[in-house]
Amino acid sequence: MKILVCISHVPDTTSKINFTDGDTRFDTNGVQFVINPNDEFGLTRAMWFKEKQGASITVVNVGGPETEPTLRKALAIGADEAIRVNTEPTDGFFVAKQLAKIVADGGFDLIIAGRESIDYNGGMVPGMLATLVNANFVNTCIGLEINDNDVTAIREIDGGKETLKTSLPLVIGGQKGLVEESDLRIPNMRGIMMARQKKLTVAEPVEATKETTAVKFENPAPKGAVKLVSPDNLDELVSLLHNEAKVI
Amino acid sequence: MSVLVYTETENGKFKKTAFEVASYAKEVAAMMGTSVTAIAINAENATELGSYGVDKVLMVKNEKLNTFNAKAYADTLKQAADKEQAKVIIVSSSADSKFMAPILAVKLNAGYASNVVSLPESTSPFKVKRTAFSNKAFNITEITTDVKLVGVSKNSFGLKENTATASEEAFAPELNNDDFTIKVESVDKATGKVTIADADIVVSGGRGLKGPENWNMIENLAEVLGAATACSKPVSDMGWRPHSEHVGQTGKPVASNLYIAIGISGAIQHLAGINASKVKVVINNDPEAPFFKAADYGVVGDAFEVVPRLTEKLKEFKANNA
């Protein structure tokens, strides 16, 4: 089985979010970048398939040279090779079109992407990619078993979960639950050394127009101070929630 | 050329979010000087939609669509959009709509903005405000395609009643086998319990609860308020509560009217998940807990004493205000 894992290069979850150039660009100054957490769950599930059932894993990212350390980390975790599509990821549809070319060229059976990236949160790339390459698609995927061509996938729905049957080729939008948090892997020294020898191909982008433009960013309005209520006067809290906040 | 809105149903009844997206669509249509057409799949009765500004309802009756199927639903909406020559299509932010919308966007060649939190700043050019960076910021997005697809965040707009009457029209999309290559084997849904996605109030517990055996305290408070229960990341990682209750950057985002955090210190990733909630209450015995900086109301005290007392106070309040 040939697996492609789509990797987003995103700010670490603890990052403070600031903007520059008149609030038109994310300020990367002092920000650590990591593998998008939803993609990391997917990469770990791909490793499970590789180790238990036999599979090759290619990781792909759409981005400039600055994203290569993130791809190298994925190689250190255990992916076999990496592809970087050499262009700025301007919007979801543009990224999906770049990935569709990689899928078409590589003949992948299973494409694992995160349900959304934690920076732009568009949540559109996996579904768009599946539609562009005419593959089956399961979003918010929290369980995946594959036997030959038969797929059993579990997806999270509002208030529960749903078990689905389908076939390869398949694209999933994965998330926490696909593997346990404790199964996530930290690259060891041997993995890091081996990753240096693994193939990282730079692919040139295909022509694609973007459909949305991030015109401007805003930080949330500053928050007023918390109103503290004594634990001995909970009537006051009930009254505030009813009369002031009007939420009960 | 109308605004098309997808109004979700469950067991033939409209979900509350259906009325929210209909209310939103009405305002967008007013900005554009056009009408609202809703598409309702296997709805028993569509008269309620008129009360939220819908002018016409395309009624789809098809047994094959009894269970949600993203591809088939996207195909249905695509055909409805073509028929109505809709330039703007509005969907909700439910798990199903987020599953379907990217497929629909490709079929319609439409730019898609998800997690939209307010009406468009302008409709020409079409600019909407959406959340980004896991609710730590907002982004004004311009959709540059001829057809626009907008996913509205829950609770961001509310319900706006109208007195219009909606006309109904039968609509039979042409579906083919290719739409049904994914089959639903089983659905496991908690019944009779408020879900995080639908809840107006969420009661959430953290490590301060000391163990899963103490969760009845959270459940009792949630029951009085008609709230959903949730938890912080360490709690789901330790297996005290299921992953589906984990609120935060890598878990579920919560956009409730009231979020009550009990024994949660307020890590930046957790705060990102609840930023979109309107009113936040924090109960924690550590006055230095970072959550107090993000909260509207706070109680510094032992959760094991405060929460049962608060539950009793709220019971009294409910009884007096029933």
UniProtKB/TrEMBL annotation, chain A:
GO terms assigned for molecular function: electron transfer activity
Organism: Abyssalbus ytuae
Span of domain Electron transfer flavoprotein alpha/beta-subunit N-terminal: 23-212
Gene Ontology CC: cytosol
Gene3D superfamilies per the UniProt record, alphabetical: HUPs
Coiled coil: none
Name used for this protein in its record: Electron transfer flavoprotein subunit beta
Keyword Lipid biosynthesis: no
Secretion signal span: none
Keywords associated with the record: Electron transport, Transport
Family (UniProt): Belongs to the ETF beta-subunit/FixA family.
TrEMBL record, chain B:
Molecular function via GO: electron transfer activity; flavin adenine dinucleotide binding
Xref: SUPFAM superfamilies: Adenine nucleotide alpha hydrolases-like, DHS-like NAD/FAD-binding domain
Highest rank taxon of the organism: Bacteria
Hydrolase is among the record's keywords: no
Cofactor note: Binds 1 FAD per dimer.
An individual GO BP term: fatty acid beta-oxidation using acyl-CoA dehydrogenase
Known cofactor(s): FAD
Binding site for FAD: 207, 263-270, 284
UniProt xrefs under InterPro entries: DHS-like_NAD/FAD-binding_dom, ETF_a/b_N, ETF_a/FixB, ETF_asu_C, Rossmann-like_a/b/a_fold
Boundaries of every Electron transfer flavoprotein alpha/beta-subunit N-terminal domain copy: 3-184
Pfam annotation, one family: ETF
Keywords: Electron transport, FAD, Flavoprotein, Transport
PANTHER family documented for this protein: ELECTRON TRANSFER FLAVOPROTEIN ALPHA, ELECTRON TRANSFER FLAVOPROTEIN SUBUNIT ALPHA, MITOCHONDRIAL
Family designation: Belongs to the ETF alpha-subunit/FixB family.
The protein's name in its UniProt record: Electron transfer flavoprotein subunit alpha/FixB family protein
Naturally occurring in which organism (per UniProt): Abyssalbus ytuae
